């Protein structure tokens, strides 16, 4: 369990801003801070990690106080057992892939664990390359492996997909979801991309101008009910949940998420990242895959 309360004066694009947040995160929970650029999302991560110090506040992790401004407690970042994946990966350019991962180990002689991590992020065979020889997606995979090598209690992800193309983004999202299920590490993810936070998060904190204005599971936060009336719109598929009888598509339309039931025929060939057109037919939605040159 994480209990946090932070106050920090910031300079934003709109001028001075007070970050003033209080929140709790459950053990092994995956949460996201979502909001526009400049809302204070990255600052929250840096406060959790100890890279910056709040003007006042309190941070407790698993019953241990990491920060308390009143009692003058401030646990050093290297003692917080935090794994941090930055937006620009921050790899050591003079080190190989393997050495970058090994650098984060708490003790020597864990080559098997390094092998496991490199295998998990699909970097085996490239462990002797240096970051300059890798693609953006590969560098972020190495950064993720390095963050996990420290066996963190808390994993912080600061917009790790922002510089990647759509295909790489979806692939890395899948890998992070698999890693989360395997390790069960409490994870805090920051993004201003709605499909990412919807797809990965168990709970979302909506941050606006330094304040948490709403929080809850993604379905309650962003799904727009459309129970009647005629409509027709194009959206991007975030997720396809399939079973023997039903296919449920989560589709981003503007700043909203709509869930739509699709028949097996309608959902055939549709995957996350595809564009679809949804239209009403006798008040029942129908779904068709969308292509730039027209409908499929």
Report the span from N to C terminus: 48 Å
> Main β-sheet: number of strands, strand sense, barrel status?
6 strands, mixed
Count of discrete alpha- or pi-helical segments spanning 4 or more residues? 8
**CATH superfamily heading of the largest domain:** P-loop containing nucleotide triphosphate hydrolases
Principal-axes geometry comes out as: globular
**Structural class from helices and strands?**
alpha+beta
Strand content: 35-45%
Strand order of the largest sheet: 7-8-9-3-10-11
Rounded to the nearest angstrom, the radius of gyration is 21 Å
Number of domains: 2
What kind of assembly state do the chains in view correspond to? single chain
Weakly predicted, low-confidence segments: 224-229, 292-296
CATH class of the largest domain equals Alpha Beta
Overall residue-averaged pLDDT value: 84
Q: Top keywords for this entry?
A:
8 helices, 37% strand, 6-stranded antiparallel sheet, 296 residues, globular, Rossmann fold, 2 domains, OB fold (Dihydrolipoamide Acetyltransferase, E2P), 6-stranded mixed sheet, alpha+beta
Characterize the structure shown.
The protein is an alpha+beta fold and 296 residues long. It has two domains: 220 residues, P-loop containing nucleotide triphosphate hydrolases (Rossmann fold, 3-Layer(aba) Sandwich); 72 residues, Nucleic acid-binding proteins (OB fold (Dihydrolipoamide Acetyltransferase, E2P), Beta Barrel). Helix content is 25%, strand content 37%. The chain is built from eight helices and 17 strands. Strands 7-8-9-3-10-11 form a six-stranded mixed β-sheet, with helices on both faces. A six-stranded antiparallel β-sheet has the order 14-13-12-15-16-17. Helix 3 runs antiparallel to helix 4. The N and C termini lie far apart (48 Å). The C terminus is likely disordered.
């Amino acid at each position: 369990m994480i209990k946090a309360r932070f106050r920090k004066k910031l300079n934003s694009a709109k001028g001075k801003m007070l970050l003033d947040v209080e929140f709790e995160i459950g053990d092994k929970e995956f949460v996201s801070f979502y909001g526009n650029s400049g809302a204070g999302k990255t600052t929250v991560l840096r406060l959790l990690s100890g890279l910056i110090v709040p003007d006042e506040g309190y941070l407790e992790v698993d019953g241990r106080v990491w920060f308390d401004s009143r009692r003058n407690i401030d646990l050093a970042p290297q003692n917080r057992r935090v794994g941090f994946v930055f937006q620009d990966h921050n790899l050591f350019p003079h080190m190989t892939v393997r050495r970058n991962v090994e650098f984060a180990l708490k003790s020597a002689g864990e080559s098997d664990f390094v092998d496991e991590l490199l295998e998990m992020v699909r970097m085996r065979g490239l462990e002797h390359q240096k970051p300059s020889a890798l693609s953006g997606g590969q560098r972020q995979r190495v950064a993720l492996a390095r963050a996990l090598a420290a066996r963190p209690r808390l994993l912080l992800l600061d917009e790790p997909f922002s510089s990647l193309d759509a295909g790489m983004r979806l692939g890395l999202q899948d890998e992070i979801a698999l890693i989360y299920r395997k390790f069960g590490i409490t994870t805090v993810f920051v993004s201003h991309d709605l499909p990412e936070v919807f797809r990965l998060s168990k709970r979302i904190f909506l941050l606006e101008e330094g304040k948490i204005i709403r929080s809850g599971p993604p379905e309650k936060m962003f799904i727009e009910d459309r129970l009647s009336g005629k409509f027709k719109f194009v959206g991007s598929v975030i997720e396809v949940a399939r079973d023997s009888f039903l296919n449920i598509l989560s589709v981003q339309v503007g700043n909203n998420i709509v869930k739509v039931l699709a028949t097996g025929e309608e959902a055939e060939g549709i995957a996350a990242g595809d564009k679809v057109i949804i239209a009403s037919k006798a008040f029942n939605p129908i779904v068709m895959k969308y292509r730039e040159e027209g409908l499929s």
